[in-house]
Design a protein that fits this description.
With about 325 residues, this protein is of the alpha/beta class. The chain has helices at about 15-25, 45-55, 70-75, 75-95, 135-155, 180-195, 215-225, 245-255, 280-285, 295-305, and strands spanning about 5-10, 30-35, 60, 100-105, 160-165, 165-170, 200-205, 210, 210-215, 235, 245, 260-265. The chain has a domain at about 5-170 and about 210-240 and about 275-290: Rossmann fold. Strands 2-1-3-4-5-10 form a 6-stranded parallel β-sheet, sandwiched between helices. It has a two-stranded parallel ribbon with strand order 6-9. The chain has a two-stranded parallel ribbon with strand order 7-12. Helix 1 links the parallel strand 1 and strand 2 (about 30-35). Bound molecules: guanosine-5'-diphosphate-beta-L-fucopyranose.
Length: about 325
């Protein structure tokens, strides 16, 4: 990728898109193309076609998506499948028609079966049933993977798919009900500390395990993969280690400095019990995550404190 290549970052205000833009700008890329959702609604096919025909990007980071935590996935399933199918179909089709050199499509670790041998290899896709709490979202993402692979097979495009694990960092959504666990816990512990509450409520049993990847590591991996020429094979992106939700809660509690108790609300779903990714394909290409969970939680809490007026949620 030349530093003057025309690069469209779809979803540049979101968690991943904003990290990719930060990283591209840092690395001296000067020709970034971005649109807010009010400037370009990616669910509108004609608008997306017109945009691609006019702007003719060379590279596309497809980081625009409807995303959310376990509760949001369970509560708004039609949005999670419908919006994602529309965005990805429109962008991927327009990228093919206008001759985009390479496109990176972001999937998610929830595309893999609920009961999966651990750590999860890319080839376990579609070998068993999905986790019900996020099946509609996962089916949209699986359709996106197949769409990219099918274009590559039929049209010789270079549409690369990557599967990150649970992402977090600056510009995350901190909504108390709809966010993912890590930002939700940062906010809950912070508010409990401010109000001198005696306890914080953690959903589920605390025993599910999750692998958390800082979004700056994710952006680093996305640029790395975009610049690889050898492969368009699907790639997992993880740190290689996971923690229980209880361990995560204790880490956040310590970083925030909350001295009360943890209370587990077992009426809330646990979701998948474990989804540690095997990222050895990506590691073999020469990429590894650098940011530890402790460090990532600390800097994300710092960001949260500095952006209290404007954070999403
Ligand atoms: O991050 P999370 O919402 O999504 O939840 P998933 C992870 C685990 O943390 C679950 C527990 O076991 C939750 O019950 N948890 C504990 C909490 N306290 C909280 C809390 O306050 N808020 C939240 N949100 N969870 C999502 C999928 O699954 O992961 C998406 O639904 C996507 O499709 C995303 O794949 C990465 O990890 O269970």
């Amino acid at each position: 990728m030349d530093t003057n290549a025309r690069i469209f970052v779809a979803g540049h205000r979101g968690l991943v898109g904003s990290a990719i833009v930060r990283r591209l700008e840092n690395d001296g890329f000067t020709n970034l193309i971005t649109r807010t959702s009010s400037e370009l609604d990616l669910t509108r096919q004609a608008d997306v076609e017109r945009f691609f025909a006019e702007e003719k990007p060379d590279y596309v980071f497809l980081s625009a998506a409807k995303v959310g935590g376990i509760h949001a996935n369970n509560t708004y399933p039609a949005d999670f499948i419908g919006i994602n199918l529309m965005i990805q179909s429109n962008v991927i089709d327009a990228a093919w028609r206008t001759g985009v050199q390479k496109l990176l499509f972001l999937g998610s670790s929830c595309i893999y079966p609920k009961e999966c041998p651990q750590p999860i290899k890319e080839e376990y896709l579609l070998t068993a049933p999905l986790e019900p709490t996020n099946e509609p979202y996962a089916i949209a993402k699986i359709a996106g993977i197949s769409l990219c692979d099918s274009h590559n097979r039929q049209h010789g495009t270079r549409f690369q798919t990557v599967m990150p694990n649970n992402l977090y960092g600056p510009n995350d959504n901190f909504h108390l009900e709809n966010a993912h666990v890590l930002p939700a816990l940062i906010r809950k512990f912070h508010e409990a500390k401010q109000s001198h509450a005696s306890s914080v409520e953690i959903w589920g049993t605390g025993t599910p395990r999750r692998e958390f990847l800082h979004v700056d590591d994710m952006a680093d991996a996305c640029l790395f993969v975009m610049q690889q020429n050898e492969t368009t094979e699907m790639l997992n992106i993880g740190t290689g280690s996971d923690v229980t939700i209880r361990e995560l809660a204790e880490t956040v509690q310590k970083v925030v400095g909350f001295s009360g108790e943890l209370r587990f609300d077992t009426s809330r779903p646990d979701g998948t019990m474990r989804k540690l990714l095997n990222s050895s394909r990506l590691h073999a290409l020469g990429w590894k995550a650098k940011i530890s969970l402790q460090e990532g939680v600390r800097t994300t809490y710092q960001w949260f404190l500095e952006n209290q007026e404007s954070f999403r949620g």
